[in-house]
Amino acid sequence: MNLIAPSLLAADFSNLRDEMDWFNRSEADWLHLDVMDGVFVPNISFGFPVLEHVARMTDKPLDVHLMIVQPEKWVSHVRDLGAAVMNVHQEACVHLHRTVQQIHEAGMKAAVTLNPATPVETLTDIIGDVDVVMLMTVNPGFGAQKFIPHSLDKVRRLRRLIDESGSKALIEVDGGVNRQTIVPLHEAGVDVFVAGSALFGKPDPVAEVLALKQMINE
Q: Which of 159, 169, 157 is nearest to 126 (CA)?
């Protein structure tokens, strides 16, 4: 499965309707939505009033990435958006298994994200219960950062963990995805590619989505 998930964090919010228009016309698969609280990460992005507006502007699946403390408090809010995927950080969840259960009970796919310094082995005892594991390939909190090279080895280790456990979890990456990094990431085992500045702000983002998809489907 090779999915492209444009990250709204990189969009021009003064021109949001046009940004959503090209997204809807493109072959992009998911819309990735980064919620930041200024506590778990050193930045604040957008909240649920914005998410509710965006959700009404597309029929494509929403991948809601909560870079916040106590994400379990917001399961019902994310569900009410109609989100397909709720993505929480392993580092922010004291009781990760319980949070994954809550997400499933709300009818969503459960995704767990790891920061760059968090080993994939921390998910050994829950890998069979999650639908998606997302690896941050930059430090979370800001867009347009440089890809961390050792992330490729981390993807390979995660792929081995998933395959050896029999888990069906998809591997998602967020950070520094572009024409230079997408093929090595794909070869390492990534299924879902979050792309921000590689798409938003480009002269023809619809064509850019197609180009990225062609690179991983050749």
A: 169
Q: How far apart are CA 89 and CA 117, in angstroms?
A: 13
What is the DSSP-derived secondary structure letter of residue 44? Answer: B
What is the gyration radius of the CA atoms in the chain, in angstroms?
A: 16
**Alpha carbon distance 33, 162 (integer Å):** 25
Please indicate whether residue 174 is annotated as part of the active site. yes
Tens digit of pLDDT at every position of the chain (218 positions): 799 999 999 999 999 999 999 999 999 999 999 999 989 888 899 989 999 999 999 999 999 999 999 999 999 999 999 999 999 999 999 999 999 999 999 999 999 999 999 999 999 999 999 999 999 998 876 655 678 889 999 999 999 999 999 999 999 999 989 999 999 999 999 999 999 999 999 999 999 999 999 999 87
Straight-line distance from the first to the last Cα atom of the chain, in angstroms, rounded to the nearest whole number: 13
pTM above 0.85, yes or no: yes
Question: Of these residues, 29, 34, 63, 191, which one is catalytic?
Answer: 34
Contacts of 170 (CB under 8 A, 6+ apart): 1, 3, 131, 132, 133, 191, 192
Q: What is the full DSSP assignment across 183-206?
A: HHHHHHT--EEEESTTTTTSS-HH
Question: Could you say which of 29, 63, 174, 191 is catalytic?
Answer: 174
